[in-house]
Every structure is written in structure tokens, then in C-alpha cells.
Q: What sequence folds into this?
């Protein structure tokens, strides 16, 4: 099977557009790859609970072994899989796991989709300054969140209008499990249409609410993101679909 990380990146909508276009063309030419993607998506959607990690590994192992001796065919337009062993696995899943494969919890979705914010070019320019916030951002990048949090707390008390610092303060708070503080600070940034971090703040507000198991508030921020063409839209659509399942 093609690297599962690549397939996950594609299915989660995290693959850059040029790479995604190439991947789609590769799927058209390689029916084996198309099969792997379709099967992985079906199994991945069915088995979302972290406690079933070992079961997922077993299924993948069975699929890999069976591919050595059996032919497989797939109808992409209707997503029909004619594959004896896979059919058996699907039956096994539906019979033995139906009680634990109910609605995916917001917290689990958070753990699957949350990624720390990566410093962009404009922020790197700011980091080169001698400002106290620059040091705090550097500490955030290094994973030294406690030290970063302390500097940001003192800095923002005197520099209320620095939205870059406020955004990273929120990111540091999220990493420390201080979701309540992160939400307060992110709301101040996302409401500033002139801020470079307005969109990012909306996304991480949704993430923070998912972490707090607040589905309704998360959906409130995810819907407008999903309706627009932006960096997070595909992932927002995927999460909304999971929340409805």
C-alpha cells in the first residue's frame, strides 16, 4: 500500500493543490492506488476510536496479505468494491464494533486534526527584532511553552494592540491545555479584519472548542471556513461531516 501518511493527507484535505492534482491523476492511471485510497477511507471512517488502533493494524495486515493472492476490482464512480476478504472484514466491523462506532466525539476529532501553528514568513521577520514578543515566539517554536506563556502574559499587559503576539499567546495557551484563555485571546484577533491572523484564529477557535467538547461553538466557526476557498476549508468540511455522522 502507498504510504498511508500520503493517503491520510489526501483524504484530510491537507495536500497542497498542485500535489493533489497530481495525486488524482496518479489514481486515474493506477487502479491499485485508487483501490487503496477508497478502502483506506472506508476503514478509516468506520474505525475512528483511538482505542481501536490495534484492530485497525490487524485489518491493514489482512488486506496486505490478501492482495498477494487475490485480484481486486473497484468501480470508482459508484465506490463498489468486489473483494471477498474485504467484504468479510466489513461484515466483521459492522457486527462487532457497531456499538463503539457511533458519533465521533469532538475531543477525538481535535486530536486527529489539531496541528501547532507553523511560523510564517511575516512572523519570522518580526522574530528578528529585539522585541520581547520575538523571544516568546522563538520559545513557542522550540516547544518551551511555559516560558513563552509567561513572557506573553507580561508583554500583552503593556502592548495590548500587538495582534501577532496575542495570536501566539493563544497558540501557547492551547499547547498548555489552557483552552479558555486561548478562546478569549483568539476572539480578539479573529474580530480584527486587518489582522493577518484573523482566518487562523477562526480555525483555532474551532479547534479549541472541539478540545473543550463544545460541538455547537466549533460548528459556528467551521461552517464559514468550509464555505470559503481557503487553507482550512477542506479540513473544515471533513470535520463537519464527521460531526454529523
A:
Amino acid at each position: 500500500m502507498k504510504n498511508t501518511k500520503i493517503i491520510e493527507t489526501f483524504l484530510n484535505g491537507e495536500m497542497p493543490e498542485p500535489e493533489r492534482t497530481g495525486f488524482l491523476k496518479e489514481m486515474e492511471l493506477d487502479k491499485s492506488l485508487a483501490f487503496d485510497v477508497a478502502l483506506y477511507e472506508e476503514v478509516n471512517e468506520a474505525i475512528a476510536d483511538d482505542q481501536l488502533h490495534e484492530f485497525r493494524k490487524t485489518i491493514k495486515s489482512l488486506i496486505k496479505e490478501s492482495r498477494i493472492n487475490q485480484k481486486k476490482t473497484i468501480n470508482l464512480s459508484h465506490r463498489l468494491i468486489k473483494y471477498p476478504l474485504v467484504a468479510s472484514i466489513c461484515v466483521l466491523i459492522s457486527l462487532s464494533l457497531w456499538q463503539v462506532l457511533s458519533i465521533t466525539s469532538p475531543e477525538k476529532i481535535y486530536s486527529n486534526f489539531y496541528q501547532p501553528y507553523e511560523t510564517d514568513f511575516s512572523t519570522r521577520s518580526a522574530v528578528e527584532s529585539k522585541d520581547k514578543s520575538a523571544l516568546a515566539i522563538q520559545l513557542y517554536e522550540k516547544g518551551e511553552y511555559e516560558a513563552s506563556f509567561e513572557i506573553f502574559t507580561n508583554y500583552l499587559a503593556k502592548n495590548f494592540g500587538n495582534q501577532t503576539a496575542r495570536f501566539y499567546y493563544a497558540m501557547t495557551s492551547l499547547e498548555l491545555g489552557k483552552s479558555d484563555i486561548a478562546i478569549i485571546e483568539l476572539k480578539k484577533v479573529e474580530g480584527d479584519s486587518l489582522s493577518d491572523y484573523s482566518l487562523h484564529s477562526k480555525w483555532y477557535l474551532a479547534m479549541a472548542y472541539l478540545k473543550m467538547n463544545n460541538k455547537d461553538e466549533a460548528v459556528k466557526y467551521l461552517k464559514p471556513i468550509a464555505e470559503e476557498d481557503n487553507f482550512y476549508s477542506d479540513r473544515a468540511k471533513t470535520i463537519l461531516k464527521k460531526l454529523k455522522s
